[in-house]
Amino acid sequence: MAVITPIVMPKWGLAMKEGTLNTWLVEEGAPIRVGQAIMEVETDKITGVVEAGDAGLLRRKVAAPGQTLPVKALLGVMAGADVSDADVDAFVAGYVVPIAAETEDGGAASSYQFVAVDGIRVRYARRGGGARRVLLLHGFGGDLDNWLFNIDALAEGDTVVALDLPGHGQSDRALPGRTLGDLARFVTRFLDAVEIPSVHAVGHSLGGAIAAQLALDHPDRVDSVALIASAGLGEEINSVYTEGFVAAQSRRELKPLVEQLFAKPDLVTRQLLDDVLKYKRLDGVSELLSELGGGLFPHGRQREQPGRRLGESGKRVLVLWGAEDRIIPVKHASQAPPSATVKIIEGAGHMVQLEKAGEVNTLLGKHIAG
Amino acid sequence: MARKISIKEAIHEALDQEMARDPRVILMGEDIVGGAGSPGERDAWGGVLGVTKGLYAKYGERLLDTPLSESAYIGAAIGAACCGMRPVAELMFIDFMGVCFDQIFNQAAKFKYMFGGKAETPVVIRAMVGAGFRAAAQHSQMLTPIFTHIPGLKVVCPSTPYDCKGLLIQSIRDNDPVIFCEHKALYGLEGEVPEASYTIPLGEANVVREGRSCSIVTYGMMVHRAAEAAATLAREGVDCEVVDLRSLSPLDLDTVIESVEKTGRLVCVDEANPRCSIAADISAQVAQHAFGALRAQIEMVTAPHTPVPFSPVLEDLYLPGAKQIAEAVHRTMSGAKG
């Protein structure tokens, strides 16, 4: 029987309800290969490229550029040349947008959750149900939405847990300490609280340095390590960014800084900046970030570099970097242990997991599977 | 995401959190506790619309029910501010400001200047503004321009619960006198507001909607009507940018000019009467500083130069609506250089 594959509005992150199709990147009648960029979708948070999950022929563009549609709405149809136009028409006419997963499973598995860890209230998300456990650690000033384009893709095969580090996102504005050792220890206490014995630790930027420290200090809790645009592999870090980010109080000050995180600055939407500003304006955030940054990377120099000692841990290590990273130099990738798999991703900046989500997800998936 | 609360609850929460954080914060106003002389529980009223209800139980004598003498207690609040307190005075309706003008214009606004920068007057005067509440001509005015006219005063007029909480906390922490204008028709409006304390700087406008064809600059309740007009216009292919000024003094003219430089067109919307209004001020400043960016005439949409009518039919006509805003956008879109 001929196969018809729907192309639907993706769901990026837990809060996404709808998206706007900006442009199609392929023409009707064109063959599509797996991983090919097929369209650009804009959400209130960020603009991203949708990559094909299946190969096939694009038979029909159902949605027009500029249309805003709910998650899982039908955007296009792929089918082989042997499928008749009438069958494609019938498929389009008969397509029903599935009810969002949250309502199907009562919402418990897909919404944000909170847990108290050493007196600090921590927000986290837990997705998927696979046997392998993956922990996502975001960077300085970030939050678990930095994994917007990764969490659901990784959760297809594995159990994925992402948290807001203490003092970040919607976790309490408190720090368990100012060293990587303190933060790594806090992560083990968090894993205790959510009853996870060990994880494939995936860290971005500062989160990478914490993941490396976790593997060194608590090897029994770590199955493998993936470092993305990671701190802790070398000394330099862009202090104009880190110090400017802490000091910025207005959208005007913040915008040029946040744009430095991306190879394509036009990915930074008004909503993305608003969300960062809303976090930064909370009482105590500036002081907390200043204290944390001052402890970990004073004056543009990273004090601790656990990533360089990761060879001692005996763990499998994956190192990913955006070739155009303007925050932590891509040359630090060469400081990874010789056994590490290193991949430099072209056309991406510091937020490589957002900018080249498909590529990063594929590499992470392979690494975690071993 | 964050929980949703109303503007009224956002004001209450801002007052509560600042009173908890800083013992110098006190509240003064008519009926903000039980209403002087009213029988029963002291916390019975909590202000004319119940904004401060529940705070007396927590903070006791730091809430003062005042006599019906605005000139006396606004003066007392300003005096207390000069002596190290951080009073928040509730004036109920901005229409009653008239009897306190000496205290506000000639005293609070002048102390820092006349004492060589050595005196500070960290007072907030909260007052309800605006029409649409069937409260007639003496309880419905939008008097914001009267206060922006005076150097030394800061003037704030928020449009959302998120902005309301952050701007009120910032106003309380600010060391200058702030006139905090709350639109009475927006008290029930709900929106996402973080539970924790946060501040929004005074003098920073918010781009509510981005667009390329025409800038609509406004504040207060008119932000919602402008957004409604922009949504209608978008369906007709006119892509409007909506700028919410949030603070009227200091004024974020940079954001306004940036927007006009992008769109080339400007519609100023103001619930105040037209002469010497915020709309007139923005129009004049853009014409002076960004004339070269304008591709067509500036349009203004304001209330007419009349008192607010008591007749509900006339009051609804008095207030600028989405339809008039959309018409003004159409006029400038088809105007001058096309």
Key descriptive features of the protein:
heterodimer, A: 370 residues, alpha/beta, OB fold (Dihydrolipoamide Acetyltransferase, E2P), Rossmann fold, 2 domains, eight-stranded mixed β-sheet, four-stranded antiparallel β-sheet, 16 strands, 28% helix, 24% strand, B: 338 residues, seven-stranded mixed β-sheet, 35% helix
What does this 3D model show about the protein?
- Chain A folds into two domains: 4-100, Beta Barrel (OB fold (Dihydrolipoamide Acetyltransferase, E2P)); 113-369, Rossmann fold, CATH 3.40.50.1820.
- In chain A, 28% of the residues lie in helices and 24% in strands.
- Chain A has helices at 85-94, 101-104, 151-155, 180-193, 206-217, 239-247, 251-259, 270-280, 285-296, 352-355, 357-369; strands at 4-8, 18-24, 31-32, 37-42, 47-51, 56-61, 68-70, 74-79, 113-117, 120-127, 133-137, 159-163, 199-204, 222-228, 316-322, 341-345.
- In chain A, strands 9-10-12-11-13-14-15-16 form an eight-stranded mixed β-sheet, with helices on both faces. A four-stranded antiparallel β-sheet of chain A has the order 1-8-6-3, covered by helices on one side.
- In chain A, helix 4 (180-193) crosses helix 5 (206-217), helix 6 packs antiparallel against helix 7 and helix 6 packs antiparallel against helix 9.
- In chain B, helix 1 runs parallel beside helix 7 (161-173) and helix 8 (222-235) packs across helix 12.
- At the A-B interface, loops of A face loops of B.
Topology, please?
The complex is a heterodimer of chains A (370) and B (338).
Chain A: E1 4-8, E2 18-24, E3 31-32, E4 37-42, E5 47-51, E6 56-61, E7 68-70, E8 74-79, H1 85-94, H2 101-104, E9 113-117, E10 120-127, E11 133-137, H3 151-155, E12 159-163, H4 180-193, E13 199-204, H5 206-217, E14 222-228, H6 239-247, H7 251-259, H8 270-280, H9 285-296, E15 316-322, E16 341-345, H10 352-355, H11 357-369
Helix pairs in contact in A: 4-5, 6-7, 6-9
Chain B: E1 4-6, H1 7-21, E2 25-29, H2 55-59, E3 63-65, H3 70-82, E4 86-93, H4 101-108, H5 111-114, E5 124-129, H6 144-148, E6 154-156, H7 161-173, E7 178-183, E8 190-192, E9 206-209, E10 214-218, H8 222-235, E11 240-244, E12 247-249, H9 253-263, E13 266-270, H10 278-289, E14 299-302, H11 312-318, H12 322-333
Parallel strand pairs in B: 2-3, 2-4, 4-5, 5-7, 6-7, 10-11, 10-13, 13-14
Antiparallel strand pairs in B: 1-8, 6-12, 9-11
